[in-house]
Amino acid sequence: MRKLMVWLMVAGLLLSGSAIGWAADEDLTGTLEIVHWWTAGGEREAMDALYDVFRDRYPLVSLIDASISGGAGIAARAVLISRIVGGRPPGTFQVHAGAGTIDPYAEPGFLEPITFIYEEEGWVDVFPEPLLDMLRFDGEYWNVPVNIHRSNVLWYNSAIFEEHGLEPPATMDDFFDVAEELEAAGIIPLALGETWTVVHLLETVLLGTLGPEAYDGLWDGTTDWGSNEVRDALVYFDRMLDYVNPDFSALSWDEASGLVVDGDAAMNIMGDWAHGYFMAQGWTPGVEYGWQPTPGTAGAFQALSDTFVLPQDAPDRDVVVAWLRTVGTREAQDAFNPIKGSISARVDADRDAYDVYQESAMDDFAQDAIVPSLQHGAAASPEWMDDFISAVGSFVAHRDVDTLHNDLVASAEEALD
Amino acid sequence: MRARRAFRQSWHYLLLAAAAAFFLMPVYVMLVTGLKPFAEVALPRMWHLPQQLSFDNFAAAFNVLSGNLFNSLLVAILGALGSAMLGSLNGYVLSKWRFRGSNFVFGAMLFGMFIPYQSVLIPLVRFMQEINLYGGLPGLILTHIVYGIPITTLIFRNYFATVPTEVVDSAQIDGAGVLGVYRYIMLPIAIPGFAVTIIWQFTQLWNDFLFAIALTEPRHWPVTVALQNLAGARVVEWNVQMAGALLAALPTVLVYIILGRYFLRGLMSGSLKG
Amino acid sequence: MGRKRKDRLGALALLLPSAAAIGVFVYGFVGWTVRVSMSDWRGIMPDYTFIGFQNFMTLFQQDRFQTNMWNTLVFTVAFIIVCLLLGLLLAVLLDRSMRGEWLFRTIFLFPMAISFVVTGVVWRWLLNPVMEGTRLTGLNLLLHEIGLGALASPWHMHPTWGMLAIALAATWQLSGYVMALYLAGIRGIPEQLRESARVDGASEWQIYRRVVLPMLRPVTLGAVVILGHISLKIFDLIMAISPEGGRGFSVEVPAMNMWFTTFRGLRFGRGAAIAVILFVMVSLLVIPYLRYSLRREVER
């Protein structure tokens, strides 16, 4: 029954779409090469769903899927940059929304603004305001968001919390109480992975300690990096590292989440792509695992969004524009996101297509304060991010809070200079 | 006396067996993991034999990788042949047609072997784009041939150095030119040199990842790049991954098993001593 | 006379394509890198503004870069020494044992046939740093099971000596090659030399020490150069074992730092400076060797 309704709705959308007149271009021909880094379970299928929507509209266009994984995600970037600098950009490529990731391409003129698509498609009304703020640069739009992920989520193994009569921690102090008890029971309190997941943890701690407004201010210089509040956050962060698995930094993020599935660890702080991982392990949201904002971050939504762009001098520009138009549609987003585990970037998403976690994320996204993520490129320039990762990387080995604080202050000064 | 000898022999074999165990250990892990169904794959059980044999992983990996295996084969064979040809010419000229500064030219060529390749990616892509060879296999093969010149020149120069100059001289008296001497004197005796060079280059090119990912578009990807994508960033199906890894390693390992003796013979003739 | 001249020119012509290709692909590209290393290129847009040695100064002041250099040093020394010793040992053992030589030789040699991309994944599992408890795995699990649990180690997560674990994996890959070099070297020594030593009453051990080893010196030197340049450039293997360079850069090396600096931090100038430092280190190793071996050849 529900399936039938979905079909009816899809049919209705198609009709309304063709009524506006943009889906009718069945004669469009050309080749579209799409560079992205989605290669694994869940992601691959989500991308295929997106391709299906596109192929329905433009059956004559041939798609080249150029997915590149490996090298800590830098491999895709290295290839992309070599090609762009070499004057051979692909048709379109994946990039996170936000100043840190889009400016380096847009500023030197490697991208073409696509504000005209936003206007023609009426996207200014369907993408939420905070997201539009993240996307705008120099008064123009440069990329089309396909999804929203939340990064400040605490995932927990429900059975462990039940068995020990514990509540998932809402504040930093709660966290340490709970962690003590878990450790006494012989359970790893917090599962942690390689260096980027450590940086990810730190940014949620900064958000939880400073609050959304002051956290936001860190990236434009209105919040002082040298302040005691930042130091408090670093001390919390340092203490949290006492409660993690001994092999952190040797595990990938999914192996760390796997510790929670296996019952070796109780909690994991990770973006909601972990939701897709848990489901792939046969877990049901709300049954075997629960979630809530990371300690102290209730009411704040640390967002990242995957987007596609229009490179300057892209081959078959018409085809790229058609792709971007498609990606922004409600139909495409509702085909892609339920599989990917993220939520639609549009406010008019069809809630029935999504699961219980995603519905909760939609509600939070609608009412919470939206803040950018550093690790995922939205908050700061690549140079700043590189320094930040350097500082955290050294800290993990030496655990000297003063040095970390000094390093972070210095890198902020250099970046905001 | 004989007892002592036997004792020493068994001692040798014990050491050799211990070393062999060390060398085979990672392969054992790959093999047992590649044969396990996904549900059985878990880090704490990595040394265990599979309870249920699952050959599906190999089929699944082969399905994904077969096209890429073909690309690799093409690149490795043509690249190895090309660089061996150029290397044998260079080695011949540099050992038998010495000129003022020939040692310098040789040293300058050899240096190319030692540069860190990651640092030349950007100029390389730009250059390939300019000569219109970006994206396909010809560009990748050309790159491999060029960066193969130093090592192949080294191998052949050392190899031809053992050929007495009188042979060349007498051929010249008989009227052979530069190419004639190469074609009729050097080439026929250079077979072991070619064996070493081609084995070496085939392996190097087959295993390359960096140039392939930087220079080719997806449908031309060789197997090393495709293998990386098999792993992906999310849920890694380690059993399929390991099966794919074994498939990707098979051709070069076979080359070594079957042609290993030629490799060693080539080494003995002094060609890869450095 | 005219023909000789023609032949000479013909020989040079044969050399020309290779020389031109190397000129572009090696010297042209390296020249470009040197130019970028002295520029202020940050961000994706090429910017060749000359800033002298500033990028180099910044690097040498960085703790991270100093760690990189330390790691390279530890790795190079351990890797070369262990590879040479193990390679020599295996070669001598194979030289002395007649039966099964083909089998053992093949087993020792095959790792070098496999890509670092392939072996790195397995080594990441084997080098898992958990040292006790239910999540033991890899080598540490094996050590516990054979009663050597005390030898369990954090492997590449060790802040100072993590590179030794990488050296272990690299040794696995390349000691067979060194074995083959030595075996070829030993077999190349005329049997009469050994025989006459035997007649003089030397023990097998003395023969190896007095006769074989000295004659293997050129082989050792060549192996050191080959292993040395591999170790200075090592990249794929560590990227596969530990894509972010271990804990606190415990196993990051300059080639990886260059990769991240360039493509994550988009600091092209600084990344190129790291590349230039690598060129210099490799040259310091290779050029003296080339001069030495070419000169030795002339003397012969």
Report what the structure shows.
The complex is a heterotrimer of chains A (417), B (274) and C (300). Chain A has helices at 2-20, 43-57, 74-85, 99-106, 115-121, 123-126, 129-135, 158-163, 172-184, 195-218, 228-240, 253-261, 273-280, 317-327, 330-340, 356-367, 382-398, 401-416; strands spanning 30-36, 61-67, 92-96, 136-137, 140-141, 143-145, 149-150, 153-157, 188-191, 265-269, 289-293, 300-304, 306-309, 369-372. Chain A is α/β, with parallel strands linked by helices. Chain A has 2 domains: 2-148 and 305-366, 3-Layer(aba) Sandwich (D-Maltodextrin-Binding Protein, domain 2), CATH 3.40.190; 150-302 and 370-416, Periplasmic binding protein-like II (D-Maltodextrin-Binding Protein, domain 2), CATH 3.40.190. A 5-stranded mixed beta sheet of chain A has the order 2-1-3-13-6, covered by helices on one side. In chain A, strand 4 (136-137) and strand 5 (140-141) form a beta hairpin. The longest helix of chain A is centred in the middle third of the chain and has 24 residues, at 195-218. Chain A is globular and about 65 Å long. The termini of chain A are far apart. With 274 residues, chain B is mostly helical. Chain B folds into 2 domains: 1-54, no CATH class; 58-268, MetI-like fold. Chain B is built from 11 helices and no strands. Chain B has helices at 2-34, 56-96, 102-111, 121-130, 137-161, 165-173, 178-189, 191-207, 210-215, 223-231, 238-268. The radius of gyration of chain B is 23 Å and the shape is flat. Chain C is mainly alpha-helical. Chain C has 2 domains: 26-61 and 267-300, no CATH class; 70-264, Orthogonal Bundle (MetI-like fold), CATH 1.10.3720.10. Chain C has helices at residues 2-37, 54-61, 63-96, 101-109, 116-126, 138-145, 162-187, 191-199, 204-215, 217-233, 236-241, 254-263, 268-299. The model of chain C has no long low-confidence stretch (mean pLDDT 89). The interface between A and C is large, with 38 and 37 residues.
